[in-house]
Fold this sequence. Notes:
Elements lengths: L6 E6 L3 H12 L4 E7 L2 H11 L3 E4 L8 H11 L4 E6 L4 H10 L3 E4 L3 H13 L4 E2 L1 H16 L11 H11 L4 H8 L3 H15 L4 H10 L6
Helix pairs in contact: 2-3, 3-4, 7-9, 7-10, 8-9
Amino acid sequence: MPEETATRILLADDHALVRRGVRLILDGEPDLTVVAEAGDGAEAIEAARAHRPDLAILDIAMPRLTGLQAARELSRIQPDLRILILTMYDNEQYFFAALKAGACGYVLKSVADRDLVEACHAAMRGEPFLYPGAVNALIRNYLDRAREDGAVPERAITEREEEILKLVAEGHTSQQIADILVISVKTVERHRANLLQKLGLKDRLELTRYAIRAGLIEP
């Protein structure tokens, strides 16, 4: 299949070795071609703007912005972009967060050689791709919500606060965060104060612990 009719893919993972392995799988398919790579969530957004891919494959645990944060932003700025999460986490919390962020598929790295190509094809057909454990989680979640009359707790913090929380926990200064998110230092400080108050925390160390528990950064 000529490259211009092949599915154009953006691949984002902070480990170059993983990207190389995944690229080998994808480039072995005549109808799939990797047109851009990124090492973190923020780079993924920039690459998507520059290359306008058909499909983004995002790792979850990446610096600056996680794959889930990047997926939310990409869903906003490029609604037609199909998004797959490729992750080592066999975890219901991340799976549901991925669906909420706009992903149409969730693939485990441990079986990427078996599932990833099929997931890419499903995504481009407009079909969801879920690994077997995710299907069970989805059914359990549906039954639990049906029993509870559909009650779903609200997010504790906003998406912008979550972005700032992750960057604070990664050790960025207020000025660096302002530069990354293209907002003022004063806005960063206000969000940071709101985070401490909302979460009942005292300082950056406690914010970092919270970020680890919330899966925003790796311990």
